[in-house]
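Sat 14:20. Reprocessing the chain from the morning session after the first attempt stalled halfway. Input below, unchanged.
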Amino acid sequence: MPGRARIVMLFITSILFLVIPIAGALAQESESVTTTITVADETGERVPLEGVSITVTDSAGAEVGTGTTDATGVFMLPVPGAGTYTMLLDEATLPEGVVVANPERNPATVIVEVGQTRATIFALSSGEDDGRGPAGVTVRQVSQLTVEGIKFGLFIAMAAIGLSLIFGTTGLVNFAHGELIGWGMLMAYFFNFYGLAGVFGWMAGWPAPFGDGVNVIFAALLATILGGALGWLLDAAIFSKLRARGVGLISQMVVTIGLSLVLRYVFLFAFGGSPRFYQQYTAQTAIQIGIVDITPKDLVLSVLSALILVGVGLFLVLTRWGKAMRAVSDNRDLAESSGIDVQRVIRLVWVMGAALAALGGTFDALAEQVRWDLGFRILLLVFAGVVLGGLGTAFGALVGSLIVGVGIQLSTIWLPTELKNVGALVVLILVLIVRPQGLLGRKERVG
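Finished this time. Tokens:
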């Protein structure tokens, strides 16, 4: 009992990183919102647009103010204080032929902290240089959506590989995997703003990350470590005990559903329901690569994600522990009879899978928004990527996630943005009708 009590206390202490509220004042004396409106001309150079009208409203829908961009394309408006604001770009004030590239992001929501100026981006495009076809679809549009789909697919893949490995080694469908994604995202936000002083006040004045927030890059590293720690804790405190007692997989799956609900609403209680942003890299001007626009942070995150996934693949193929994971996933009984410590392998899989999920959540939130329910929102897509690629196969999860990401974005050409996830699920159904085991899964004889 004392050992179990220590484990429970460790779990509660880790949750305190989210539950304890933090207050801090920043350097500026007032709050404001801003954006810079530019569009690519015929030569590919980005030029500012003057006279574009933008209206700002608060969370209650009351108008805060309206203004237009200046000669440099900059719009800035002071707001009454910290809070959530909506910025609506009046498309009627755009030059002829210029449109909002992502209509679902107009209006845009910005979260203004105390003393901060928050920026957002309105991506604009001109259809004149693309040869818009009869259906209104352009090569530029398809290329842009494909790049965004690959980016999103890479983020999903980091979470999907961990979920697939856990299923492959234990047979468990972990519905709490979405909360592992959310945990990493929120831990990165916590360290980005507050450091350990947010929990232990006596650390105030210490060097970062103890007494103050750190750059989001270092915060993401800390979040990945804490994600792995939570994975270790969940297996050590709960699932290893259930396996040792011979609890069935259905019962364990029900436990993951309950755990998901508990963690999700702890996140809501501690973080609140409003979306937020990290302190760094919240708004950047897109750079043009060929006919595609992409922000520097999205480009860096995509490259990092690809390198991490390649590293995970090499780890699984070349290292002793990676080969042991694949052996346990292929045939657990045979692996155990060959001298592999199956329980240690499963523990490592939980740590590795949770760390990847935490990092994937941090990357996704850095590219979009920090939301308390981000993990739950993309969990279905993670499952879709895993099933599409083949249950229990790490490489299948990668391929499936990329297909899901691209399918979601391209579906917005024909479907309303609110229904974009339907495109990925339709692809999933069609592929499974033809190949029930998934793209890279193995056929199994039943009966």
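Confidence is low (pLDDT under 50) at residues 15-29, 128-135.
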